[in-house]
Amino acid sequence: MLKVFRATAIFEGISYLLLFGLTMPLKYWAGLLEPNKVVGYAHGALFIIYVVVALVFCWERKWTIKRFIILFLASLLPFGTFYADKKYLSKLA
């Protein structure tokens, strides 16, 4: 489960950065709507998967709700999932 969660965290973080760093500027500065739509859907799916996997992972590890909230908040911040992976998940590997 740890490998799945770490992979999900990395992919969710990459999709977040692609969405805000690449496709949104393309949408608003170049008028290209399609990349934003595709990456937006992918990011939305990865976000939901990340939250569900984080919940299951915290449940299996018997982590506190505080730790889950930290992992959840990390998904809302740019580079947050990378920080969560480094601080909480890489130590478990």
TrEMBL record:
<feature type="domain" description="DUF3817">
    <location>
        <begin position="2"/>
        <end position="88"/>
    </location>
</feature>
<protein>
    <recommendedName>
        <fullName>DUF3817 domain-containing protein</fullName>
    </recommendedName>
</protein>
<dbReference type="Pfam" id="PF12823">
    <property type="entry name" value="DUF3817"/>
</dbReference>
<dbReference type="GO" id="GO:0005886">
    <property type="term" value="C:plasma membrane"/>
</dbReference>
<keyword id="KW-0812">Transmembrane</keyword>
<feature type="transmembrane region" description="Helical">
    <location>
        <begin position="68"/>
        <end position="84"/>
    </location>
</feature>
<feature type="transmembrane region" description="Helical">
    <location>
        <begin position="7"/>
        <end position="26"/>
    </location>
</feature>
<keyword id="KW-1003">Cell membrane</keyword>
<keyword id="KW-0472">Membrane</keyword>
<dbReference type="InterPro" id="IPR023845">
    <property type="entry name" value="DUF3817_TM"/>
</dbReference>
<feature type="transmembrane region" description="Helical">
    <location>
        <begin position="38"/>
        <end position="59"/>
    </location>
</feature>
<keyword id="KW-1133">Transmembrane helix</keyword>
